[in-house]
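Late entry, evening session. Most of the bench is empty. Finally got around to the prediction I had been postponing all week. Sequence below, unchanged from the version circulated by S.P.
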Amino acid sequence: MKWSTDWGLRGRMAITMFLLFALYIVFLGFLVGSGMIGMTGAIVILGLFSFVQYYYSDRIALYSMGAKEVSPEEQPELHRMVDRLSQQADLPKPTVAIANTPVPNAFATGRNQKNATVAVTSGLMQTLNQEELEGVLAHELAHIKNRDVMVMTIASFLSSIAFLIVRWGWLFAGNDRNAPPVWVAIAVSLLVWVVSFLLIRLLSRYREYVADRGAAAITGNPAALASALMSINGRMDRVPQEDLREQAEMNAFFIFPIRSGFIGRIASTHPPMEKRIERLREMERELATA
């Protein structure tokens, strides 16, 4: 399979980011107009958040997962796989990190292709064989090549702003029952968060299909990634619930989402595993008949 630019993904990214930024400009305009914050304060807040998410989002993601960079001397086989797959994907080699957790998963982070990190968990390395692990690593490299790591980081960060305003506003309003502007801000923030939440979920599910196809193009072995997804799915049922809860907030970046019941499936950042595997099987048949 040859790598090809997915213009459907590019278009969805552009539309999602436009709608999110438009949403937050209106939101900040409301806060300024209602007297909650001044124009200078809005500019400072937006500038500070933008600076932090652009330059430090990768470090924050790695820290939140407890992932640490590993050298070629510490993990020679893992580095050899990332080296080879990066060359096949025509990408600069990303930083390699490992998170010490029994949850079998992987994620990519970073602001661009030259400043990216691929992280895997110790649980993933214990669960998968070499071909399956290569399929997962190729999936994460496809995210980096498509530049959707940066887009999802920005989108998720903007969504978090509205959520924090809801949380802080609720605490403030609890101490001052006669503060209607606060309650209005909470209501508007909640609406903004819900809309951005849904936009991010719609984009995230589509990008997973594209990354799966990218992984198949990089490795030439879609069956390996399909097998990896099934292995991860089987292992998830044996992981302690406290470990799953600790990592649930990173769902948008994982190769496999942390499930949390019916609501979790509706709000999932990933499409159903069965559909992903079905599409990978179709790619396998395409390769067999090519």
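Two things to note before I forget:
The chain is about 70% helix and 10% strand.
Residues 7-289 form one domain.
Will write this up properly tomorrow.
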